[in-house]
Amino acid sequence: MRTSILAALPARTEGTVLGRRFFALAIALTLITPAGCSSADKPITVTRPALGTVVTINAYGENPRDVNAAIEDAFAVISAVEAELDAYSATSTIAAINAAPFEWHALPADAVEILDAIERLGVAESFSPTLLGVVKLYDFGGDGHVPTEGELSAALQTASMPERDDDRVRFLGIASSTAEPGLDFGGAAKGLALDRARDALNAKGAVTGALVTAGSTTVTLGSKPDGEPWRVGVEDPRDATVVRMTAEWTGNGALSTSGDYQHYFEHNGVWYHHILDPKTGTPARGTRSLTVVGRFSGLDSDILSTALFVDGPDAALAYATAHGLGVYIIDSEGRTHLASAPADSSISLSEQSE
Ligand code: ADP
Ligand code: MG
Prior knowledge:
Blueprint: H1 9-13, H2 17-31, E1 44-50, E2 53-60, H3 64-85, H4 93-99, E3 105-106, H5 109-121, H6 132-137, H7 149-158, E4 163-165, E5 168-170, H8 189-203, E6 209-213, E7 217-222, E8 230-236, E9 239-249, E10 253-259, E11 264-267, E12 270-273, E13 287-294, H9 298-311, H10 313-322, E14 326-331, E15 336-339, E16 348-351
Antiparallel strand pairs: 1-2, 2-6, 3-5, 4-5, 6-7, 7-10, 8-9, 9-16, 10-13, 11-12, 13-14, 14-15
């Protein structure tokens, strides 16, 4: 288990729940490929380790060679985002910034895009890309550690939003013995990378429809040859073999799920997971799983699934309704809340009975 979506693959796939979520998506995807259809109607499917998880591209198009070339382009741009934003890589642009956090650094364009999106979406109080030192305290990738009050307050102090001057950034805090400040775009980078992949698939016109998924975030492009909708299943947060909700739509769209079961440990009967409330540095309570779906970018969906998870079910439902998004929540009591996308009746969310 690792703490970032950009963490190294082996740690993320050793029987972690992310792997199981992927399995649930795979179930949903197999349902939508009708048996006996001609090969021209079948997608070319390529699955590779990337973004600390497994990325699958399903792409439709007339010419298999051109479709394959577009898929290669898509994986290349995913790697480029990873090379910039992976806080856990020794060689990424973000790692270089985090190595000397109190000096001015030029922000990579991908990071600027994420910071601008957080502001535009109005979720800066619940989505913070500076929690690296706080996340690390929990040692989700190792044995799990419950931070002391002192550790938490020191880490939160260093995590306070850095000074930004256009596209430059530096932290203002002081390093403590237990925490270093650091940028962590792990809650958004997957969405951004999938947007770039979709652009690459679309660039040369060879791909008529595609679904790109990194497990917890999925983006779609265009449509399937038979006009059937894209379909994505959301698993039960405590039983990955069970699909709790199925979202369907045609055309471009995005879906992200944030769950308390991706990276977690239990200590003295308390469940500690990787989505933290920036105000307290402790795991956000109130929600087990939150999915947003709509006609927005993968980036927006990824930011919002994390931010609305932190906000809690009531605020999340209010935000989704006000912004025309579909949302599906399983709260900490196991109760479900579903709001269809009011702005778009062609997006359907249906809950499976338990
Ligand atoms: P996943 O990576 O499992 O798809 P998310 O998109 O919700 O899930 O991102 C969770 C990751 O984002 C955490 O592993 C951590 O690196 C970071 N993170 C945790 N809490 C927050 C927060 N409140 N705001 C921004 N990033 C966060
Ligand atoms: Mg997210």
